[in-house]
Amino acid sequence: MQTAPMPDFPTGFRWGVSTSAYQIEGAADADGRGPSIWDTFAHSPGRVLDGSTGDVACDHYHRYAEDVALMAGLGVTAYRFSVAWPRVLPAGTGRVNAAGLDFYERLVDELLGHGIDPVATLFHWDLPEPLEEAGGWLNRDTAHRFAEYADVVAARLGDRVKLWITLNEPFVHMSLGHGTGEHAPGRTLLFDAFPVAHHQLLGHGLAVAALRARSSSPVAIANNYSPVRVLGDGAADGAAGHAYEALHNRLFTDPLLGRGYPTELGFDTTVVRDGDLDVIAAPLDVLGVNYYNPTGVRAPEEGSPLPFELVPLTGYPRTAFDWPVAPDGLRDLLGWLHRQYGSDLPPIQITESGCAYDDTPDADGRVPDPDRIAYLDGHLRAVRAAMADGVDVTGYFVWSLLDNWEWAEGFTKRFGLVHVDFATGARTPKSSYSWLREVIAAARREPPR
């Protein structure tokens, strides 16, 4: 597939790929790892679309060297992975599992040996099951246990990890895991899930302090953002759009940047104690932005428990997840962040951006995925346009390196630059892998590997 030449990116722009532990590692019973809420959820009948679990996933735990070689062949300068909390602290607190830390040390050293920056995310939704049984993120104590865990990981890897990310998408973990129950741990609290938001952010702030005490590397958080498209021109529609923007985009950004929680949603904030907001607003070095699509919103029907109604957007191509492909939304989002937060906004890295399609090998064993190439081409151009508008963006991580176990969708959705045969584990780079390798080589002004 031919595309127009990509605009130049600055020297030093970070080119990366992202994954998460439960989605690719497998080895659920290896090295003393404890159970997570996703083990419990996936093994509960009816929770996962195809009935699968992450017990084996992509077997990255045993095949990490092969996967790092794929990254090196792609030419990326950074790899964003997550550390499995229950692999390091099987009970979530207390005894440290040295064998689990050994795996991450091997991975980090393998990355550095190939000139790839390790970017470590500490929490990508796999809370240790014993902490969930004690209340999970509804329990304030979990924030303090998270800080302990951050200290343990940084004590071992703080001299080699190049960027720390505390939490991944706390909005999604709150809303799907605790609001609607579609994700682990499967709670259905709707707006009563606010304590989950607060305790995640409190844990973030406490972890920032722990990381800075052990490591000189920069610290970030990775938030999921979605620009709001208001459908309807009535005052109630505008109010619905404002409410959704406060929930999805501002709830996990305003307090990080010292502005407190948005008040439009009427949350019961009695869980917020004196001094908490100061802890949460610890200075960030980078804001991670995960972007997939905009959200259509209009006024809700009378009697709805929510102040908005979500409406599918039309007029866009769709992914296999039925998400609209809207690169303009990424440029709009970056511009909104720039205007909304001004000088309070730290440099941005796009820590996830990608698409699911039903990619299958052809008769020659190749995996053509022209839709993914078009997606990445459009979104990279959107990032470069936002940079030209004055937004400080310093990196872009593709979700994902590998086809993986996609949470409640199981093995039915493929996001990877590399096709994985889930029966054998065999990896086959797709056409998007080759395309991106050329883009990165041109951006880095060097021959492709």
How would you describe the overall organization of this protein?
This protein has 14 helices and 13 strands. It has one domain (14-443): Glycosidases (TIM Barrel). Strands 1-2-3-4-5-7-10-11 form an 8-stranded parallel barrel, surrounded by 5 helices. Helix 7 (141-157) runs parallel beside helix 9 and helix 8 (170-179) runs antiparallel to helix 9. It has 449 residues and is of the alpha/beta class. The model has no long low-confidence stretch (mean pLDDT 97). It is globular.
Helix content: 25-40%
- What CATH calls the topology is TIM Barrel
- The CATH H-level homologous superfamily: Glycosidases
Order of helices and strands: EHHHEHHEHHEHHEEHHEEEHEHEEEH
Q: Strand order within the widest sheet?
A: 1-2-3-4-5-7-10-11
CATH class: Alpha Beta
Describe the main β-sheet briefly.
Answer: 8 strands, parallel, barrel
- The radius of gyration is 21 Å
Catalytic activity: Hydrolysis of terminal, non-reducing beta-D-glucosyl residues with release of beta-D-glucose
InterPro entries: GH (IPR017853), GH_1_N_CS (IPR033132), Glyco_hydro_1 (IPR001360), Glyco_hydro_1_beta-glucosidase (IPR017736)
Keywords: Carbohydrate metabolism, Cellulose degradation, Glycosidase, Hydrolase, Polysaccharide degradation
GO cellular component, one term: cytosol
